[in-house]
Amino acid sequence: MGRIAERLAVQSWCFRAFKTNAQVIEQLGKIGLKHIELCGVHADFNKPETFEKVIGEYRAAGVRIVSIGVQGFGDNPIAEESWFKFAKMAGAGQISATFDRGKTPEAFASASKLADTYGINLAIHNHGRHDWLGSPWMLEEVFKKTSPRIGLCLDTAWMLDGGHEPLEMAERFIDRLYGVHIKDFVFDRAGKPEDVVVGTGNLDLAKLVHLLESKGKPNLCAILEYEGDEQNPAPALKQCVEAVRAI
Fold it and tell me: SS3 letters for the chain?
């Protein structure tokens, strides 16, 4: 089994219909994973008094929180520092992020200072053709003008939505590639996306996994995301896990 399969995580948004962390942990058992990116549905990153309980539940179950987010940064360092405190306490090396366009470049600067202080990378999540950070040209401009603490969490499906080949984008931004949301879409005639098991849609899963393995990035967060079947996502997610492990 390759490094990607060994440290494969899942985004907790996949389990958004399950409101308690005990339920999320049960779902993780069904799909056979022990790593998670925790989103705001399952933890309040603004309430430090709750951190120990939430993190303790996952630790007791042998689950590692590798990342949190996606968090929206807007040059509000007092509030945003709480997110870093959670990530540090959990042992997460990354916060998946987006930035308020109207608050830049200040939001980049204040977030970078926090990232340096806590030793945690920020990884911009590209969210398709309608997202201002969904364009590779905009990402290039951002990376030219920001600290190396700010990199990319490449969402493969939303990159497809923007009309860009995820493998090419992974190569293009390899130096700032800190995370990958392994996600797959098919599109109807109107261009509307639909989640499918990874590798069964427009994503060349085998080439993606081989590329990530070959680049030797030991700290990269490889995170499965499947938003279909909201009430019962485990069967499709288990197929996603098996597809990655088969490669």
Answer: CCHHHHCCEEEHHHHCCCCCHHHHHHHHHHHCCCEEEECCCCCCCCCHHHHHHHHHHHHHCCCEEEEEEEEEECCCHHHHHHHHHHHHHHCCCEEEEEECHHHCCHHHHHHHHHHHHHCCEEEEECCCCCCCCCCHHHHHHHHHCCCCCEEEEEEHHHHHHCCCCHHHHHHHCHHHEEEEEECEEEECCCCCEEEECCCCCCCCHHHHHHHHHHCCCCCCEEEECCCCCCCCCHHHHHHHHHHHHHC
